[in-house]
Write a structure and sequence with these properties.
One of its GO terms (molecular function) is RNA binding. Pfam families: RRM_1. This is RBM45 protein. A four-stranded antiparallel β-sheet has the order 2-3-1-4. A four-stranded antiparallel β-sheet has the order 6-7-5-8, with helices on one face. Helix content is 29%, strand content 22%. Helix 4 crosses helix 7. The longest helix has 17 residues. Among the domains are: 75 residues, 2-Layer Sandwich (Alpha-Beta Plaits), CATH 3.30.70; 73 residues, 2-Layer Sandwich (Alpha-Beta Plaits), CATH 3.30.70.330.
């Protein structure tokens, strides 16, 4: 249904899915919403910006949200914005935003205290974020490996990963000895691959069969 709606929709959005269009960023506490919009408008059409503030004092917590009209615009912002913003996908609004914000802030300040980075030095290391898992540093690429206990159907797996814009190819392979499924997925940008991993790692397809999605080296410069 989700795939069909995204294809048939005449909407201005690529996919009507907030998880793909709203990003979460760490910003200087002096930023206003207008400052935030000004910094991120170059990546696409912004629907809204918001800054998280202390409910008691009204002061900025140094965190904010930016929502774009298209997933491709949010992907571009994550890929191209200064690494000091620590841009990642935001959790859906129906989840506990306060818990998400608290974990995000604590994780990033812990990294800084270890001496890896300093706030807004412009070169913080990229850390992936997965739902219900701790953030780990890993090599990001445009290519993904997908592993399953059950064999894949080429057409259905392609349709599943084609939800995320930028899919270049889906190569399904089968181990005749174990009957397990293995596929290599490639996108045209690392940002699209990041989205796909975030969305589909642990996804049950078919129901009861969890997919394992990891990055594969694609020979590109990892610093990109």
């Amino acid at each position: 249904v989700f795939i069909a709606q995204s294809r048939a929709s005449g909407s201005h959005r690529d996919v009507e899915d907030e998880e793909l269009t709203r990003i979460f960023v760490m910003i200087p506490k002096s930023y206003t919403e207008e400052d935030l919009r000004e910094k991120f408008k170059m990546y696409g059409d912004i629907e809204y910006c918001s800054i998280i503030k202390n409910k008691t004092t009204g002061e900025s917590k140094g965190l904010g949200y930016v929502r774009y009209l298209k997933p491709s615009q949010a992907a571009r912002a994550i890929e191209e914005c200064d690494r000091s913003y620590r841009a990642i996908l935001a959790e859906p609004k129906n989840k506990s935003s306060e818990s998400f914000e608290h974990d995000y802030y604590n994780n990033n300040t812990r990294q800084e205290s270890r001496g890896n980075t300093l706030p807004f030095c412009g070169q913080p290391e990229f850390c992936s974020f997965e739902k219900n898992e701790s953030r780990i540093q890993e090599s990001v690429s445009k290519r993904l490996s997908v592993v399953s206990r059950l064999p894949f159907n080429q057409e259905q797996l392609f349709a599943l990963f084609d939800i995320v814009p930028g899919l270049e190819y889906c190569d399904v392979q089968r181990d005749p000895h174990t009957n397990s499924g293995y596929a290599v997925i490639q996108y045209n940008t690392a940002a699209s691959a990041i989205y796909a991993k975030y969305k589909l790692h642990g996804f049950e397809y078919p129901p009861g069969n969890r997919l394992t999605v990891i990055f594969l080296e694609d020979g590109s410069d990892s610093s990109e």
